[in-house]
Amino acid sequence: MTRTVLVPTEGSPLSMKALETALTDYPDADIVVCHVMDPIGSGLSLLDVMRPTFDDGSPPGSVSPEYWREWHKRAESKAQAVFDDAREIAAEHDRSVETVLEFGEPDDVILEYAEGHDIDRIVMGSHCRTGAERFLLGSVAETVVKRAPVPVLIVR
Q1: Those residues with Cβ within 8 angstroms of residue 147's Cβ, 6 or more apart along the chain or in another chain
Q2: Distance between CA atoms of 76 and 14, rounded to whole angstroms?
Q3: CB–CB of 154/126 below 8 Å?
Q4: pLDDT tens for residues 90-140?
Q5: Which SS3 state, helix, strand or coil, does residue 32 take?
Q6: Which end of the chain has less Cβ packing within 10 Å, N or C?
Q7: Model's pTM, two decimal places?
Q8: How far is CA 24 from CA 12, 32, 99, 103, 122, in A?
Q9: Backbone angles phi, psi at 126, to 5 degrees
Q10: What is the pLDDT of residues 63-77, one digit of tens each?
Q11: Distance separating alpha carbons of residues 109 and 96, to the nearest angstrom
């Protein structure tokens, strides 16, 4: 019996579909919604990271303390919006979710969280990237499927 389901989300419609699937397919399980803050995957594009639009006066691509403070503030704000959306979806199913905000490489964080907590299953979306985009961005879902210590359900 599945008791605890981890649903990693970056806020995309596909990851919210994965949350809906978890809520529907595992009605008796606790649902943990995890958002991972990382410089490229938390709502900021590669251009934002390499050519920041922040107002700290630093040249593009620099990593001043002010840059990271502002990045962190924006990423936390995005995470809270993702969690608000997740809570709304859960409420539509008369359920609640636990929310977890982590920092790091998404695939590593997801795997470490699953190993370090009592997770029975991971339900996540996959963007099915191909070609150059997959080469440049990789596939978090693919890495998680290959290395997860528990069963993984991929939603497309």
Answers
A1: 107, 111
A2: 21
A3: yes
A4: 999 999 999 999 999 899 999 999 999 999 999 999 876 555 555 444 588
A5: strand
A6: N
A7: 0.83
A8: 19, 14, 18, 28, 14
A9: -135, 130
A10: 677 777 888 898 899
A11: 23
